[in-house]
Write a sequence for this structure.
């Protein structure tokens, strides 16, 4: 699993997740999200177009981050979900807990 | 992986870094058994969560063997996970309430919730050797009224 992070001066932080998030690789996602929040980045946009799999540990990490940033005026948004990842979100009920946008533009704008 | 047209089996060390290999095995086995892509996604998730539980809650940081068998039996898919960890029954984990507040839902138990949601039957037994056997059954034709899960004559030897 790889994560690339783009931080701009005024817009939200864009994180691109590539590969699979499972109980083995979730630590990297956890740490990246925690570092960003501790640096004061509360508006987080996740590009999931190359995310092939996410296990419950990964969903939990996203939900905990959403809980934290929402109290600080921010939000976690996702876009580009692949069919398998979308199905996993639906099974977990997370499609109603996290904001899933149709396009990157929709996710990056309107904060 | 070894197998024929009706079953496949996989033996692996119970380590988190082997979860990806376990998912590849389940993908390959279910594809060979003619399961549709959406159901494959669901079954892979359920087995991954079950295997992660065995590694984290069963072996608790120690390493040991784990074996997985996948079999198609009429209109059901039967998956057997065996290990030699101290007895750990994932079916005893309390169900989480998805209508509960966010704080309660992130407390844990999501993996077991997903296994229960995906699979039609989840059964745990302590094996003769004192390890665990977890049988997961997924009906492939949920509308079938004459469902026949023929898992009795099949002994999980994984």
């Amino acid at each position: 699993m790889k994560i690339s992070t783009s931080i701009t001066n005024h817009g939200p932080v864009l994180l691109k997740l590539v590969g699979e998030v499972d109980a083995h690789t979730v630590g990297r996602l956890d740490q990246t999200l925690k570092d960003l929040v501790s640096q004061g980045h509360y508006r987080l946009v996740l590009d999931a177009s190359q995310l092939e799999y996410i296990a419950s540990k990964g969903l939990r990490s996203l939900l905990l981050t959403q809980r934290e940033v929402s109290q600080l005026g921010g939000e976690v948004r996702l876009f580009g979900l692949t069919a398998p990842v979308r199905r996993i979100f639906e099974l977990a009920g997370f499609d109603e807990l996290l904001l899933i946008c149709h396009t990157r533009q929709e996710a990056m704008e309107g904060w | 992986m070894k197998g024929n047209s009706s079953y496949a089996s996989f033996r692996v060390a119970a380590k988190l870094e082997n979860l990806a290999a376990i998912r590849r095995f389940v993908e390959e086995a279910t594809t060979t058994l003619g399961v549709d892509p959406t159901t494959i996604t669901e079954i892979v998730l359920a087995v991954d969560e079950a295997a992660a539980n065995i590694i984290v809650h069963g072996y608790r940081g120690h390493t040991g063997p784990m074996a997985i068998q996948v079999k198609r039996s009429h209109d059901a898919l039967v998956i057997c996970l065996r290990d030699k960890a101290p007895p750990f029954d994932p079916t005893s984990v309390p169900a989480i309430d998805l209508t509960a507040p966010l704080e309660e839902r992130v407390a844990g138990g999501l993996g077991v919730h997903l296994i229960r949601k995906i699979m039609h039957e989840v059964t745990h037994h302590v094996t003769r050797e004192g390890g665990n056997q977890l049988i997961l059954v997924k009906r492939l034709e949920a509308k079938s009224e004459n469902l026949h899960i023929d898992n009795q004559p099949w002994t999980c030897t994984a």
Remarks:
- The two ends of chain A are 28 Å apart (CA to CA).
- The longest strand of chain A covers residues 43-54.
- Residues 19 and 96 of chain A are 23 Å apart (CA to CA).
- The mean pLDDT of chain A is 96.
